[in-house]
């Protein structure tokens, strides 16, 4: 919801936000009140026009990024632009680069244990979000979500076995400008991690900007059915 609000150039009403998110205004109001209390959203009255009390307008409070974060984002955008401009197949090259990065990120792990938990445990959670459940490989799913959480994607487990909602993008501006490259790298990271853990990875797909405020990572069930011997 916050990212949806951030996508607007001007403050919006509850009705407009409800149309964009398909959420009931009462649900929106409750979440917005919490975000306002955290200092992440501000509200003000619209300019009066006619009878009745003017509507509330909501806008995201955008924090000013630190200099180092701005430098990293600028470098990522520049690299994405270069790949987009010079590569014959930017998405394929980006995925390949992401695969190498994903392997490096998890290269020190094994398939038997992760942070003291064993494969097949039934009490898997990340940040209080349960990622185990109906079949498949809860440990594999947990490890994918843990990696994405560490990288800043704020993942949420969907009601299905294989889908993960990514509610934040650490390189959102670059991804909007060059989704073939940036989103390709992010998909490659997941595939590279799955390969390193001995799981099939080609079925994993990233549906960029597939819904308001989130992308969707689809992990084929084969990717979560255990490790290679």
Automatic annotation (TrEMBL):
Start and end residues of each stretch annotated as Disordered: 106-136
Compositional bias segments (type: Low complexity): 107-128
SUPFAM superfamilies: Winged helix' DNA-binding domain
Protein name: Transcriptional regulator
Native species: Intrasporangium oryzae NRRL B-24470
Upper classification of the organism: Bacteria, Bacillati, Actinomycetota, Actinomycetes, Micrococcales
């Amino acid at each position: 919801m916050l990212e949806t609000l951030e996508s607007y150039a001007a403050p919006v009403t509850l009705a407009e936000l409800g149309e964009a998110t398909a959420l009931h205004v009462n649900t929106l109001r409750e979440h917005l009140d919490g975000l306002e209390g955290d200092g992440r959203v501000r509200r003000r009255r619209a300019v009066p026009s006619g009878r009745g009390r003017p509507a509330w307008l909501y806008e995201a409070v955008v924090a000013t990024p630190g200099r180092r974060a701005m430098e990293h984002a600028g470098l990522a955008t520049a690299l994405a632009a270069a790949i987009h401009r010079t590569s014959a197949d930017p998405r394929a090259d980006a995925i390949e680069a992401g695969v190498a990065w994903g392997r490096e990120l998890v290269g020190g792990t094994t398939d038997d244990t992760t942070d003291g938990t064993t494969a097949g445990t039934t009490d898997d959670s990340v940040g209080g979000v349960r990622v185990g459940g109906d079949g498949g490989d809860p440990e594999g799913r947990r490890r994918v979500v843990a990696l994405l959480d560490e990288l800043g994607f704020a993942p949420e487990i969907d009601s299905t076995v294989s889908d993960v909602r990514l509610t934040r993008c650490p390189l959102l501006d670059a991804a909007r400008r060059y989704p073939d490259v940036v989103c390709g790298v992010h998909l490659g990271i997941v595939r590279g991690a799955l390969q390193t853990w001995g799981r099939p990875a080609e079925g994993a797909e990233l549906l960029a900007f597939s819904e308001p405020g989130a992308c969707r990572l689809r992990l084929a069930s084969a990717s979560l059915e255990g490790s290679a011997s």
